[in-house]
Design brief:
Layout: E1 8-12, E2 15-19, E3 29-33, E4 39-47, E5 51-56
Length: 60
Amino acid sequence: MLKEYKTISRVEGPLIFVEKTHPVGYGELVRLTLSSGEKRLGQVLDTSRDLVVVQSFEGT
């Protein structure tokens, strides 16, 4: 099932902090779409009730 989040709260280097609205699991692979339309791959590093931390495998 595809989940889409448009709630990025901040970006620090390769880490993207996303406000969570649906359950997401540790270690899940994600596809990031930049404002330019470019696609990047990443992985969930940490998840809490309100925030998910994703590491981008490529430059952001």
